[in-house]
């Protein structure tokens, strides 16, 4: 048994060096290339509209643009829109004091949709003026701000607010009292790290278009999640999962993305709370555990968000796509488990 485990870990480390590192390098190169163009466009946006200050942050192949000054708004997250929250003026008399006065609705909410719509107009103008105008085009027919660069890459630019020093009520159940991971110090760090509010279409809102919903902001915990995954072979495990997904689970209907992999890795950390469970020698066991959990989620057609369990990350995915992903994941897991050398070809 130990020999089989060691063989799998050896093959996984080889896979990590040959496949995952190559994937990382290619992505890093693409990001460098794309960020030059996006920075140029955003500088032009800032000239037209200084409230959109270009502080680039790359989150899962999207570019996040942090907005300035949220001060006069209260963060309201009552669970009525899973995965979302609203920003409401703390006092109606402060409307004129807000930097974002024309994006505030009659009922006092800062509208994510209105800000995105204005930003989209600014980006369209900036694309025409920037020095890369020959290689960058705005993608029409979407309320998101998307650019096509050199006919090869599509970049989504998302306006966002960074929220530190508060933690959403809809994530209040985390961490579960009976689960020893991640421990009080790490929990304090993660909560201090805070979260982002993104102006983008939300999982739970697609198909619905009431104004209250389109004014809502999407909660995003990228930095908090990254902090939780520090230490042991966690990040190596994530890298292997992402590479396997990119190469073998890019399926019609797009049932799986890399965020599903990251979410299941966080749940695996709870199931295996000791640091020794994440030694290099355990990489094979952890990977198998996550692939089996993924099959189970696909078969049940439900994958709860790690911090917001009421938000189902499979919502809106076609059942047939989830089914074929379950079959393909099972084939992949069986192949890796019964014949570690197959990783040479995967």
Automatic annotation (TrEMBL):
Pfam families, A to Z: Mab-21, Mab-21_C
Record organism: Balearica regulorum gibbericeps (East African grey crowned-crane)
PANTHER family with a match to the protein in the record: CELL FATE DETERMINING PROTEIN MAB21-RELATED, PROTEIN MAB-21-LIKE 2
Span of domain Mab-21-like HhH/H2TH-like: 233-330
GO cellular component terms, A-Z: cytoplasm; nucleus
Ranges for domain Mab-21-like nucleotidyltransferase: 76-230
Major subcellular location class: cytoplasm
Assigned keywords, A-Z: Cytoplasm, Developmental protein, Nucleus
Lineage: superkingdom: Eukaryota
InterPro entries: Mab-21-like_nuc_Trfase, Mab-21_HhH/H2TH-like, MAB21L/cGLR
Keyword Nucleus among UniProt keywords: yes
Protein name: Protein mab-21-like 2
Family membership noted in the UniProt record: Belongs to the mab-21 family.
Subcellular location: Cytoplasm; Nucleus
């Amino acid at each position: 048994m130990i020999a089989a485990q060691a063989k799998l870990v050896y093959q996984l480390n080889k896979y990590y060096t040959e496949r995952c590192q190559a994937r990382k390098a290619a992505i890093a190169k693409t990001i460098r290339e794309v960020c030059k163009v996006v920075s140029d466009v955003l500088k032009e946006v800032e000239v037209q509209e200084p409230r959109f200050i270009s502080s680039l942050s790359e989150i899962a192949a999207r570019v996040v643009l942090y907005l300035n000054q949220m001060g006069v708004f209260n963060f309201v997250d009552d669970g009525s829109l899973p995965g979302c929250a609203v920003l409401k003026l703390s006092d109606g008399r402060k409307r004129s004091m807000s930097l974002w006065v024309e994006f505030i609705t009659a009922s006092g909410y800062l509208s994510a949709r209105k800000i995105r719509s204005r930003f989209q107009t600014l980006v369209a103008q900036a694309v025409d003026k920037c020095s890369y105008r020959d290689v960058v085009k705005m993608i029409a027919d979407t309320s998101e701000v998307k650019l096509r660069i050199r006919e090869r890459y599509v970049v989504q630019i998302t306006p966002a607010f960074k929220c530190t020093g508060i933690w959403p009520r809809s994530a209040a159940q985390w961490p579960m009292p009976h689960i020893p991971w991640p421990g009080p110090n790490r929990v304090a760090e993660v909560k201090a790290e805070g979260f982002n509010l993104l102006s983008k279409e939300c999982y739970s809102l697609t198909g619905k278009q009431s104004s209250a919903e389109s004014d809502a902001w999407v909660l995003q915990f990228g930095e908090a999640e990254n902090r939780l995954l520090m230490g042991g072979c966690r990040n190596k495990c994530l890298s292997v999962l992402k590479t396997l997904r990119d190469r073998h689970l890019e399926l019609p209907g797009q049932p799986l993305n890399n965020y599903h992999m990251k979410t299941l890795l966080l749940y695996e950390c709870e199931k295996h709370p000791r640091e020794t469970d994440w030694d290099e020698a355990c990489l094979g066991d952890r990977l198998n555990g996550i692939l089996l959990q993924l099959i189970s989620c696909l078969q049940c057609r439900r994958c709860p968000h790690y911090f917001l369990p009421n938000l189902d990350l499979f919502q809106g995915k076609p059942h047939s796509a989830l089914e074929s992903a379950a079959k393909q994941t099972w084939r992949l897991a069986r192949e890796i488990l019964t014949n570690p050398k197959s990783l040479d070809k995967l």
